[in-house]
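Figure-free illustration: sequence to structure, shown twice.
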Amino acid sequence: MLKGPSDPSSAPPGHLLPQGEKDETVGLGLSNASTPLALYVHWPYCARICPYCDFNVVRDRGRDQEQAGLVEAILADLEAQAALTGPRRLASIFFGGGTPSLLDPDAVARIIAAATARFAPLGPIEITLEANPTDAEADRFAALRDAGINRLSMGVQALDDAALRFLGRNHSADEARRAVAVAARAFDRLSIDLIYARPGQTVAGWTEDLTQALDLGFEHISPYQLTIEPTTAFGRAVARGAWSPPDEDLAADLYETTQEVLQAAGFDAYEVSNHARGVAARSSHNLHVWRGGDYLGLGPGGHGRLTLDGVRTATVAHRGIADYVTGVEAGIPWGEHQRLSPTDAAEEKVLLGLRTVEGAALANLATLGRTVEADPLADLIADGFLEVEAGRVRATATGRPVLDGVLKVLLT
């Protein structure tokens, strides 16, 4: 019934906007103060735009005044949204992008201080920042730690110079290893991103890549299958026949190799593209998002999810930097927002939940009219793609490699 690997790569938290009836009103009411809230900060600047990237990013060309203005806008946006949500407990903070390791550590400290002043932390919360492993950025790691960052997510992507050149990265394999060593001295919690299913890649070569990454001592590994987006440089290259990604069978073999190598090394695949060395090493911010928790989205193009007047609301900030700054100044930072119907909210929770080992609550599937007694859910369970336990539905080892197909059958 189902064939071919799913795309195990997932966008960073804050990049999924489900379809729903667009609500043009801006006067949204306060949320429930007992609902924890996470914070996603999008820093759009990159030293180089990678050819596979379709996120909201711009080249960093030394626009210091523009960047200083953006920091002030992010802080003002935080104040405005805090007034909207009312008192909340802070669950986590995640600086994504773009390349937030290019952000001045003093600005990072100001944003963290403002967030923790407006929302009382639940405890010693996880504060993550994405970083590129260049020598220049490694020089900032100690300062970023002092600013309040306690978890670094490093976009290494590959540990082979030829692969890094193909991926358009601005660091070498040796530079990445040096940056990792510096990061290990500054942070107890480190995560590495890797990209596989590159053209010409073999199972043996990918096994070696994973082995080298394991030798670096990370507690968390996020292997993403290369996704060809039509609007990217890679998308245009593939469209004109310059090169082709691996076929479905090889991509499936590479995915299975990922699971086998990392499991043997003591990593659990707690989400389709995220592996942790034990429960404590899992990303609490990502889990908060995958569980359907509320989070503020700050910065150009930043996505958020807020419960306002009891209604799940999706928000998207203006994508353009100037538009975002102007919007914040005018009191309208969101380019879009949608009050999601119960069906839309439940569907999003199913889409996110089934990516994790925790699965999705049967109650959310019931909202969508899916029950274990009737197809398509009954059929997917009988065929071994999904399983039910303790009121939740989870993808099985058979279902996870073809999760996109499973979701299409389940939700169509």
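We now fold a second protein in the same way, so the two outputs can be compared directly.
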Amino acid sequence: MSITGIVRNAFLPRQKELERHTMEAETLQQDVLRYLLAKAKNTEYGRNHLFAATKGYDDFARNTPINSYEELKDDIDRMRHGEADILWPGTVKWYAKSSGTTNDKSKFIPVSDDGLRNLHYKGGKDVVALYLRNNPKSRMFDGKGLILGGSHAPNYNLRDSLVGDLSAILIENINPLANLVRVPKKQTALLSDFEVKRDRIAQETIGKNITNLSGVPSWMLSVLTRVMEISGKTHLEEVWNNIEVFFHGGVAFTPYRSQYEQLITKPDMHYMETYNASEGFFGIQSTPDDKAMMLMLDYGVFYEFIPMDEFGSENPNIVPLWGIETGRNYAMVISTSCGLWRYVLGDTVSFTQKNPYKFIITGRTKSFINAFGEELIVDNAEKGLAYACKETGAEVSEYTAAPVFMDDKAKCRHQWLIEFAKRPDSMERFATLLDSKLQELNSDYEAKRYKDITLQHLEIVEARTGLFNTWLKMKGKLGGQHKIPRLNNSREHIDQLLNLNSAG
């Protein structure tokens, strides 16, 4: 029997337990809420919001306000300075640094010991449990996993307290036994200079039996490109004969899929999406033939949802999981065992089914274009680009888009800055196909495009190779979990990028 065959048995009880997500979703979530309230009732936040007297969801929603990071950041800063029992019991020593996708100001997300166990590591184990369930012939544990990580730094010089990328926190605290089945070595994984790290990872892994990859698609692709350069091979399976799966998350996979399929040509290569953020681990693609992810309900995360057509209104109709409607766009709100209470995560989702609850990520609450009432979201953009690429043979590496409010001819439009891995056969045709697909996908966009009255045909500006990475490097955000802002209602980011693009 292979090593994977032996390890597989350890996941059988959890595979059975996950069946509760199908028939007992509300019960699982009610159990999580009771756990969170009981655990945090004696914290400062719990006392201020009557957690000890809270009997159920209605009391919780009535006594606890909806919070953005701004509402919690003073308490988080006190925690970072060593104060205990503020948002979560005890002292929290780890903080995941996140800048989001539309805000340059850093956020510091507390990562408690309970959160490490119940949110992040539990999610990682379930990814493996579900993958092994779906792939009985897997041999992934007969080799090693290439796991990309970020870096960390001291937190206010407090002893044993660190701040950094979530991936670095996970690597720092991982069970030492896991190091037997993962690469690169810890010192390499935690390097802060991504370009140096990328080269060292390639050098360390070329001679290894790599069976699985885990990381953000954009950064992983950069590492694999370097592996190919050093090895001189054409396809990745020539370097790692037994490669079988890429566990990906952090950004949408759609823009990168065709590049991976050209790089890895073996027909039995698997791709499995995960939804893991600095704030927690929320979703896993549980079946290979369904791109929607299953919402994970027993991780110490209680979920609520705000309909996006009510987001920002004075009294939105906030609902728990059992109150959602399929096909509706929601902003996700979470309460977690890291001390985030009714926290607006910033991501938007749409549920495709119930029992089990499955969803797709549709975008960000701040990553959209609605300058003229068109309500364009990231999900529209990803699908539109995928269609235009398919029809023109193009491949997109990176992109961002923003409105042109009025040019010298009093015309308004969307401007797309796109870095192509492979240029389309016709840039004009690519733009036309993208524009028409967006109209097909989004009735508001279609209405504003009607006869070019409100919104004119979109414009595409081709970015030079490496532009987006150069921009991230200038901002000190190359590598790790930093992301390109896809859609923005302002021109702050795109103007910076256009100026850099023009400068060559």
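Summary for the second example: The chain has 19 helices and 21 strands.
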